[in-house]
Amino acid sequence: MTEQDFIPKAYPKRLNNGNVTWSSPSNIALVKYWGKKEHQIPENPSISFTLNHCKTLTTLSYTKKEHSDSFSFDVFLNGEQKDDFKPKIETFFKRVEDYLPFLKDYHFKIETSNTFPHSSGIASSASGMSALALCLVSIEIELRDVSLSTVEKSFFNKKASFLARLGSGSACRSIEGDLIVWGTHKEIEGSSDLFGVKYPYEVHANFKNYQDTILLVDKGEKQVSSTIGHNLMHHHPFASRRFEQAHENMSKLINIFKNGDVDAFVKIVESEALTLHAMMMTSMPYFILMKPNTLEIINEIWAYRNETNSKVCFTLDAGANVHVLYPENEKDTVIEFIKTNLVAYCQNGHYISDQIGFGAQQLVSEN
Ligand code: DP6
Prior knowledge:
Elements: E1 17-31, E2 36-37, E3 41-42, E4 46-64, E5 72-77, E6 80-81, H1 86-96, E7 106-114, H2 125-144, H3 150-167, E8 179-182, E9 196-198, E10 211-215, H4 226-231, H5 239-259, H6 262-281, H7 292-307, E11 313-316, E12 322-326, H8 331-342, E13 351-355, E14 361-363
Parallel strand pairs: 5-7
Antiparallel strand pairs: 1-4, 1-14, 2-3, 4-7, 4-8, 5-6, 8-9, 10-12, 10-13, 11-12
Helix pairs in contact: 2-3, 5-6
Bound molecules: ligand DP6.
Ligand DP6 binds at residues 29, 32-34, 40, 46, 123, 125, 168-170, 226-227, 230, 276, 317-318.
């Protein structure tokens, strides 16, 4: 598919007003997306677990306007007007306008809330942008006056992911569950730079219901915006080798997912997390986004793995928080370990227990 496939024909139906609601999850990358080209095209393929509890709930209300000359919208977070969110949404609308030509015909009210605290340091852009994209594609389905057949549903998901990507790259991996690939990889059929797809091959039972406990080490605002971070890969001395490595790691994961080799999985996941941070430490300007407690937690996890047969491991986002990943059959023991050994390193003792989930859901309003 190409970008052209997402440009719609004239809409047969007229809509005056209405609303749609979607709940969309966050995701955690195993092979990281870090580095992008123009138009939100990733430099390398990435793969992520879709989360189950960390979600954004968005209701999009639309009212037909008299003039279609500019974008018109208001944004609310937990019922409070948030004008500081508007520039990011305005940029998103500009990027997707060709694919959603109705955008200037309506005034939109965007009401959003997260299941996790906004200031938790958990990026809400993946769940937030995917929820908004899903709402917009739902409105488009109404305008096109089609029902969701299997073919339409598949196109719906692709278009939602395609649009979400234009809002925030990683958001394109938040439409479906439970393992999503974004970025073309020669061994993964159907993979695309334009949208995320469900991982198409066999996944061993060891990886079902994988657990993710997010340790909130630093709840502050991001030190480096992701856009600046991605841009630092442009003249990075190790960039091209890093992009190749991501391809290699994706190839290795295909066998690992098939055979259920959790030890090999742990190696790739932790190496990817540290590589992401290594890229930041070796860019110009350079950043250290880990905090002392991030390292304390990593060392505790390694010590625990050495002492026990545990398969627990960690991964990181572009920040100090730690995602602790472990198989479902270790749920009770690892939670115990987290409570006794790791919670002390979290800001105010805060952590969020999550697990792999099945993707976004539309909520139907009662009126
Ligand atoms: C470190 O998706 O936030 O979480 O496309 O600029 O919005 P933009 O970037 P974003 O980058 C996330 C990077 C990451 C790794 C990942 O999720 O793959």
